[in-house]
Amino acid sequence: MAERNPMLRVDNLRKVYESAKGGVEAIGDLSFTMDAGELLCIVGPSGCGKTTLLKCIAGLLRPSGGQVTMDGVRVTGPTPSMALVFQEYGRSLYPWLTVRGNVELPLRHKKLTRTQRARLVTDSLEAVGLAHAAKSHPWQLSGGMQQRVAIARAIAYEPEILIMDEPFAAVDAQTRADLEDLVRDLHRTRGVSVLFVTHDIDESVYLGERVLVLSASPTRVQETLDVDLPADRDQITTRALPRFTELRTHVYGQIKRAKEPR
Ligand SMILES: Nc1ncnc2c1ncn2[C@@H]1O[C@H](COP(=O)(O)OP(=O)(O)OP(=O)(O)O)[C@@H](O)[C@H]1O
Question: Could you tell me which residue ranges the ABC transporter domain spans (predicted)?
């Protein structure tokens, strides 16, 4: 059998934050892989090191031990193969630029012609349903629309992985449901690989093809769960499936166990 070559590998990752009072072991020993084209959700108790993990993966933080490899190459700093979307959309967009300008800005670092850039911006704004708002400024848009701009900016960059850190935690429930469907849609229609961190158990099961449950700090992988729900998901019918309830109850139990002292 041919050996599987995952796109992303996290091997024995460990992160200790040093402080005057001593070290905080945020990540104990974490290993997992992710294939190209996958939608992988990571869920875990509050403070278990999810953001720390994403920062290590994206090369924004240096691990204290272990390593992250992308396409067989060790990640030692920020890489164009990854684009990040954070929870605080308000702070990630430039208020003085238009929506179009915000999406275009990172593309200026790529070797593209003006026409290629324009095409990528138009295409990604269409993909997130914001073609009509291209000339607006972020502050003229709702929170959900601003997060769509951040997503458009990330996909316009054409990363190999879209990394999302609790991206919908600050929007209302209806907007959140729409944005979840947008992520699934981008994944299914464009084959975007998504690494999605959330503390919301239902969201992880609704979105993911696989859910990685993390333990409390110092973090380890508590469980990896295959989400065997139909690929065609819908906020009403999928969430009403008995299997959805079983899976979310299972993950809930795992998180409860994950919080117990070892
Ligand atoms: N810069 C830092 N210096 C010291 N300790 C830190 C630092 N950043 C995070 N920590 C600690 O590391 C642990 C993990 O933090 P992290 O923010 O990665 O967790 P999280 O799972 O993303 O949290 P949340 O669910 O609240 O978003 C926590 O105990 C936190 O207090």
Answer: 8-241
